[in-house]
């Protein structure tokens, strides 16, 4: 039996594309193993799927000063040794990396052991972890046409992001029932990423009375970001995080407000949901979400509302505009060519496996 090691972690966005590949990998006869951090979000998500999971030491590599910059390199070195030992034991035919800093020691160790490695870059420009990994990669998958110019031509392949197939199986009726909603009003879904977004949450709650005049609102607000004062508000439900019922909530939604993480927006694109993107500000990130959102706006998929411009008035105007023009956004998304990413990536894995 062929064997593959998947790696990636730190956020749900570094794990869910790996999960999306699992059914096809199993159909292709792969025995799947996963290397992640000791206690990252990836551990819980993967162990729930009964996939062998191996934790290694993981340190973050930063571009800015932080006292941990003095200790984290030693964590990376330790992780490299642990990854190398695991790869020697597992002897995979191929490694697939979704990124995040835990993937760096795994990819470097795979290179040393001459194991073919495919990495996936979700954002417009490669992050620091993937920049380190690119020289070690056999192939590099990309989400955006603009990304290809930043990658070695002989390695880069435009694939899009693997989308969990269960997202397409949602039931609008079940989603409305789960939230206690009726079919009389359209549904607005707010997604702040796996950790939630305090600024998006605040803006949404600031215009909630106005929103509820026209919409029913599903608010995925992130861990520890619930507002108990809004419990039992008619037409409004809030959750820290939703997993099993997410496909039904997507099916029930008419428009979406979201951060602009690459995996999240690729799911929105695949589901053809009109959307408002509020990318993480340049002050709080390397600006990748801004570039992602600009690309989607340019292609007609999304309404871009920069975090710096986020206000109650601007958000309400954006919601009204997107709902009014929802058919235009849907038509633009239908024309996107990135609809067969899983098959494309699995073909790369098969052709690279030794």
Automatic annotation (TrEMBL):
Glycosyl transferase family 28 C-terminal domain boundaries: 187-341
GO molecular function, one term: undecaprenyldiphospho-muramoylpentapeptide beta-N-acetylglucosaminyltransferase activity
Pfam families cross-referenced by the UniProt entry: Glyco_tran_28_C, Glyco_transf_28
GO cellular component: plasma membrane
Pathway: Cell wall biogenesis; peptidoglycan biosynthesis
Domain Glycosyltransferase family 28 N-terminal: 4-140
Membrane disposition: Peripheral membrane protein
GO process terms (BP): carbohydrate metabolic process; cell division; cell wall organization; peptidoglycan biosynthetic process; regulation of cell shape
Binding site for UDP-N-acetyl-alpha-D-glucosamine: 11-13, 164, 194, 289
SUPFAM superfamilies listed in its UniProt record: UDP-Glycosyltransferase/glycogen phosphorylase
Domain of life: Bacteria
CDD domains registered for this protein in UniProt: GT28_MurG
General function of this protein: Cell wall formation. Catalyzes the transfer of a GlcNAc subunit on undecaprenyl-pyrophosphoryl-MurNAc-pentapeptide (lipid intermediate I) to form undecaprenyl-pyrophosphoryl-MurNAc-(pentapeptide)GlcNAc (lipid intermediate II).
Family according to the record: Belongs to the glycosyltransferase 28 family. MurG subfamily.
Stored PANTHER family: UDP-N-ACETYLGLUCOSAMINE--N-ACETYLMURAMYL-(PENTAPEPTIDE) PYROPHOSPHORYL-UNDECAPRENOL N-ACETYLGLUCOSAMINE TRANSFERASE, UDP-N-ACETYLGLUCOSAMINE--N-ACETYLMURAMYL-(PENTAPEPTIDE) PYROPHOSPHORYL-UNDECAPRENOL N-ACETYLGLUCOSAMINE TRANSFERASE 1
Protein name per UniProt: UDP-N-acetylglucosamine--N-acetylmuramyl-(pentapeptide) pyrophosphoryl-undecaprenol N-acetylglucosamine transferase
Naturally occurring in which organism (per UniProt): Velocimicrobium porci
Name of the gene encoding the protein in the UniProt record: murG
